[in-house]
Amino acid sequence: MPTARWNGAVIAESDDTVVVEGNHYFPPESVNEVLFEASDSHTTCPWKGVASYKSLLVDGKRNPDAAWYYPDPKPAAAEIKGRYAFWKGVTVE
C-alpha cells in the first residue's frame, strides 16, 4: 500500500492512488489533515490546471508547500481532482 512519510510521520496511506508523471495522488480521505497547514501558494500546469499547496507541520518542523492538489483541474486531469501529491523530502513507498 503506498504510504507517504515525512519527519517520521505517516502523511497519507491508501491502496487507491492515481499515478501521474511519477507522482502518487492520494485521495483526500487518506491524508492526515491534522499535519497540514494552509498555504497561499499556487502554480499552473499547462494540462492539469492550477495547483494549490499545503505545508506540513510535524513535531514542530515545518515543510512549506510540500503537498499539492488540484481542486478544479482541467478535463484531461479530472482523475486527480482533490487528490494530494507530495515532494520536498516526503517519501512515498
Automatic annotation (TrEMBL):
It comes from Sphingomonas oligophenolica. Transmembrane segments: none annotated. InterPro entries: DUF427, DUF427_sf. This is DUF427 domain-containing protein. Gene3D superfamilies: Domain of unknown function (DUF427) (2.170.150.40). Residues 4-88 form the DUF427 domain.
